[in-house]
Protein 1
Amino acid sequence: MATFVDQVTLHLRAGHGGNGCVSVRREKFKPLAGPDGGNGGHGGDIILVADPQVTTLLTYHRGPYRTSPNGQPGMGDHRHGANGDDLELPVPVGTVVTDESGEVLADLDAPGIRFIAAAGGQGGLGNAALATTKRKAPGFALLGTPGWEGELRLELKTVADVALVGFPSAGKSSLIASLSAARPKIADYPFTTLHPNLGVVEAGSTRFTVADVPGLIEGASEGKGLGLEFLRHVERCSALLHVLDCATLEPGRDPLSDLDVILSELRAYPVPEGQTPLLERPQLVALNKVDVPDAHDLAALVRPELEQRGYRVFEISAVARTGLRELSFALAELVEEDRARKAAEPAPQRIVLRPKAVNAAQFTVRVEGGTYGPVYRILGDKPVRWVQQTDFTNDEAVGFLADRLAKLGVEDELFRSGAVAGSTVVIGEGESIVFDWEPTLTSTAELMTGPRGSDGRLDPNVRPTRNQRREDYFDRMDAKAEARAELVREKEAGLWADEDGQA
C-alpha cells in the first residue's frame, strides 16, 4: 500500500450555474403585476490550498475525481437560487499545478496560497432582471453556464533547506533520524527509503528543514532506479549534503567514486528556468559510518583529496552520533547565508493588473473551409457564454441572443469577413450551435407585440412579392368583372328584377 505520492492527476468538475426563473406575479385584481423570476445561483469553485499540515498527495491518488456543488435555480417572488459551496482541496506546500499540455498554472510554494483550479458556472438571470422599460414582461430567462471540467496534474516538490543525497544505504535515513525527530524506516538493504522524509533540525538559534532524498545510482537522471522520480525534491533546497558510505562492502565502490557518480547525475538533471543549477549550490560532504574501524581509516584517507576539491568535510556516525553537532551548525551557517542573500535581493516586481481597453476586440471571426462552403466561426468569451445561456426552445430567448450579438458588432464583422445570407455561422470551438445566418435579423425587441415567449422575427417570411401582388390584383379584377357580367345575363333572362319592377 502506497503511503507517499508526489504526482497525481486530478479530474475536476466545477458546479454548474443555476437557471434563471420565468415567473409573473399574480395578485387579486392584478392578473399581471410584473415579472418576478429570480436569478440562478453560481456554481461552486474548486480551490487548491497550500497546507503545511499535508505532506503527501495520497488522498487524491485514492480519490482523483472531485466535484463541487451546483448552483440552485431561481424561483418566483424574486427568490434567487443559492450559490454552490466552494470545494477546498488542501495540498502540500511546494505543489506545482500544470495542465494537460504541461504548462505551469500555479506554484503553491508558500503556506496559505489559494488557487482556483476549476471555476464554477455563472448563474442565469431571471426574467425580473431582464425586464426593461420597453420589454416589461420577458417570457424567457437565461440558463446557467456549465462549470469548468477537465484534468490537472499535481506535482509535489518538497520545500526544504538542505537535501541529503547519496547512494542507497549510505545512512541518510539514519542521519535525519539522529538530527531531527523524524522517524523514517531504516534497514540494511538498498532502497529502503521509497519516499522523501522531512525533518526539522535546530542548531543554536537556527531552525531549518532537512529532506532525505531516496538513494541515487548511476543513470538516475535517465530514469534508472528511484533517483529520477525524486530528484525534483532537490530543486527547492538551498544546500546539498553528500552522505558518503565509508563502510560499503560492494566491490568497485569507494567514497570518491560514489561522489563522482552523484555529481554527474546532479549535473545531468535540468532545473526549471530561473533556478540555480544543483551543482552551483553550497555543498558539504559527510563521511558516514566512521564508527567502523575500517571506515574510519578510509575516511582519513579520502578526506585530504575531498578538501583539495574544495569541499568542507565532516566525519560522522549517524548511529553513534559522532560529529553531528559540528555538522548541524555548519548546515545552519549555510542556511543563514542563503536566507540573508535572499533577503538582500530586490523585492519581486509588483504585479500590475490593467483592465482591458474599452475598444478592445471582444470576439474574432475565423473563416474555415467546409464541405458545403466556408464556415464562419465566432470566438470570444462573451458570445460563447451568451450561447450557453440561451434556451433555444424559446423564440424570445433566441431573439434576445440575436440582439446581444448585433449590439456587440458580430453582424458587421461577418459582413466584413465576406458572409452572405445563408452562410453557416458557428459560435465557439469544437461542436457548437450552428446557425444559418440571416443578416436582416436586426434588433427590434422593443417593437415586438407578439405573445410572451415568441419572436416574430423568427417566423417564416410569407410576404408576397410585387409580381404576386399584381397577379392577385388582376385576378380579383377579373373575378369582379365576371360577376358583373353574370348579373347582367341573369337580369336579361328574367331571373330577377329591380326594385321598380323592371326585368
Protein 2
Amino acid sequence: MKKWKCSQAEEEEGDVVEIVTTIGDRDVVDEGHFTSESAQILIGEIMGCNRDLENIKQNINDVQNKMKNIIDVLGRV
C-alpha cells in the first residue's frame, strides 16, 4: 500500500511540502529528515510509474489499432 501526503498549498512559491510514503510496511521518508536512500526509493517509484504509464499507452495504441482493423473489415462487408 502506498500513501502520499502533502501539506497545505503546494502551488505557493516557497512553501515546504512534506511527502510521506509507505511501500509495504516500510516508511520511506522519516519525519524530520530526508536521506539519499529515501530519494533513491522515491526515484525508483517514479521510474516504476513511468514504466507502467508507457505500458498503458502501448496497450491503448494496440487496442486502437485493433478497433481500426475491425472497422475496416466491417466497412468492406
Protein 3
Amino acid sequence: MEAVGKGVDSASERVEEIVGELRRSFTERRTVGYEWRVAQLKAILRMIEEREADFMAALYSDLSKPQMEAFLHEISLVRAACELLLKELKHWMKPQKVPTKITTFPSSACIVSEPLGVVLVISPWNYPFLLSLEPVIGAIAAGNAVVLKPSEVAPAMSALFAKVFPEYLDNSSIRVVEGGASETTVLLEQKWDKIFFTGNPKIGRIIMTAAAKNLTPVVLELGGKAPVVVDSNCDLKVAAKRIVVGKWGCNNGQACVSPDYIITTKSFALQLVNALKNTLEAFYGKDPLESKDLSRIVNSNHFERLTRLLDEVEVSDKVVHGGQRNKELLFIAPTLLLDPPLDSLIMQEEIFGPLLPILTVDKVEDSFDIINTGTKPLAAYLFTKNKKLQKKFVMTTSTGAILINDIALQIANPNLPFGGVGESGMGSYHGKFSFDAFSHKKGVLVRGFGGEARARYPPYTPMKQKLLRNLLNGSIVALILALMGWPWRE
C-alpha cells in the first residue's frame, strides 16, 4: 500500500511528494521513449500471467465474481488491450502527415502525438481489474506518468495493485495510491495533466469541479439507465439468452453497460417474460441463491439501496419473477418486474444490480420517446430483424453506444470508442482511442526560406490586396504571381 500518512496534512504532503516525483520523472522525459512504454506494457502482461490467480482471488473476495466471468470480462480484456497497444504503438507514435494549403506553399505538415504529462486514473469497484488497468495502459502507451487510485469499495484488488505494481512497473513513473474519500480529495487538490474517472454522475461532478480549478481536462466514464428495446420480430430464444447473460452474467447487473430496463409491446410482453424466466432457470437453477455463476452485491449499503428500490409500495407488487434475497450473503436473485410506475425510484435511478423492470407500450416505436425523455445512457440495445427499425433506432437515440441484437459486446471491439454522452460521460477510450485520450495532438507546419511573396508584407497596396484575396480563394495564377514577386514595382 502506498502510505499517505495519518491526517489530512500528512496525507497531503505525501501525495504532493508522489506527484512531485512523477513530475520530475516526466520532465526528465523518462516516460516519453518508445522503449520505456513497451517495457511497461510487457511488464503488465507478465504481471497478468504470473499473478492471474491472485487477481482472480481478489475479484472473488471483493465481489464473489465467478472464475469464468472474471476471466472473460476482466483478465482477458486487459490482456487483449495490452497486446493491441504493443502491436500498434510504433505506428501510432509516428507523426501523421496531413495535407497543406496553397497559402503555405511550399510546406509540409503533420500531427505529432505527445504525452500530456502526469495523469490521474480513478477506478470503480464493479470491474476493479479491467477499469483500473485499461486506462492505465492507455496512459502508459501515450508516454505519461500515472497515478492509479483504485476504489476502496474493492479493497482486495486495491491492496493487490499497491503490492504488485512496484514489483513489475517503474515506480518512479507509475504509482498506486490507496484510500477513501479523504485520499481522493487530497489527490484532486493536486495539479494533473488529465484526470480519468469511472463512476457515477454525482462523483463525476465533484471530479469536474476540482479539475476546473487547474483547467485540467477530464474523461468521465459514468453510467445511466441503459434501455433494451425488444421487438416481436426477433428470435426470442436467442434474445432471451443474450439479455440474461448481458444483465446477470455481467457482475449480477452491477455493470454500467448492463440492461437497466426493457421496453416491449403489450402484446409481446408475456412471451418475453416467459422466455426470460425459462432462460434464468436454465442458467442459474430453480434456486439462484445456490448458483455458482452469479456475483454477490458488493456491500451492505448497496444491498440496502437495492432493497429500497424493490420494496417501494407501488413497485413490490410488480415482481413477476425472483425477488429472493439473503442479507447475510449479500445476495439478491435475478428479478423481473412488469410495468412499475415511471415515477418510481427504480425507474428514476440507475439500478446497478439484479433487478430488471419491463415496460410495455402499444407499438415498439413508442419506446424511442421513453428513452429520449430521460438522460442519455451509456449504451442502448435493440432486438429486431426489422432493418428499418434498426436504422430509426440508431438515428433517433442519443447514447454512448448502440448494439443491435446483443448485449455489452460493443466493449469487446477495440475499433469502437467506449464512452458516454451528456449525463453518461465525456471522452472515450479503448484501442487507439485510449492512446488518443492521453495524448495531445500537436500540429506541426514546416517551411523553408524559399517561396517569398512580396504581397504578403506591408504596405498593403490595392494591387497586393487584390492578389492576396485571389490567393486566399485558392487561385493557382495568384500563387504563381506571388512567388514571382508580383506586383514588381509596388
Protein 4
Amino acid sequence: MSAPIVIHRPSPTGGRRVTIQGQIAGLAHDDGDVVEFLRRAGLPDAADLLDQASWVEWRGGRAHHYEAA
C-alpha cells in the first residue's frame, strides 16, 4: 500500500504539488505549507508525519527541498 500523502517532484518554477489520498491539496513552497494542507485535511499533528514513510512519500528530489527543478 502506498502512502496516503504524496509530495511530488519540484516544479520548474519552484514548489511541490501535494496530494492527499489522490486529491490535490495545493502547491507547497516549504514544510509549513505541507503542514497547513494536512491540518486542513484533519491531521492536526502533521509535522510529525513528514518523515514517516508510511504516511508521506517524497517523489523526485530530496525530502524537504522545494527549489525549482
